[in-house]
Amino acid sequence: MTGTRRPSGRDRAGGLPAVWEGAARHLRGLGPGPVLDVGCGAGDCAGALARWSGRPVVGVDPDTAALARAHRGDAVFVAGGAPALPLAPGTGSAAWLSRVLHHVDDLAGLASEVRRVLAPGAPVLVREAFPEYAHTRAYAKFFPEGVRAARGRPTLARTLAVFAEAGFTPRETASVREPFADSAADLAARVRRDGDGMLRCLSDAEFTRGTARLRAAAVRERRTGVREPVTDRIDLLVLA
User: Fold this and answer.
1) Structure pTM?
2) Is the C-alpha dihedral spanning 9, 43, 26, 182 positive or negative?
3) Which side of the chain, N or C, has fewer Cβ within a 10 Å radius?
4) What are the boundaries of each domain within the chain?
């Protein structure tokens, strides 16, 4: 990562450092336009992208309440979303879509809009937890019933097909294990029913059983003195 600053503690929002090694080389040598963070939410990734790449970043999201919380020192934020991004044609030198596909009703419309607002040849970097790998997610070990929350979300195959229709071809697909919790005890201390889609879909009985599994793992850690970090699988899809 020559010439690129390593992420600091503040940059750890959203687990982004785990995919940075793979994403960074696709964000070098770009055209003059900004990197577009489509579906930026409160702007955690937008700020990190701006700081790490040294490039201007424009974050776009329809949630004005989330945008109001965004830190504006490292990026510019505008309200809007698919199917009409509030950006001029050919504006962006790259697009970043982090965990947003399942929030989009019209995936084809989004892909077409991303194509419209990007300069020719500009890459699209999609950071996503694709549903076909839901059984490898961090919570799945303790709450296996939560895997059903991924049903109906855009799969990797569908995402590739939809973006291909919009004129994009894949450059790279890679999976990484992102840090999720320091240990089972750490996860048990902060698990919340409303904190993740895999947990929100559970019945009371399923959540109780999963919590018991998690607490049992925390007890084993204390007994053995071995703390095993909990990681989450995330995929990075690069298109152009």
Assistant:
1) 0.87
2) positive
3) N
4) 1-128
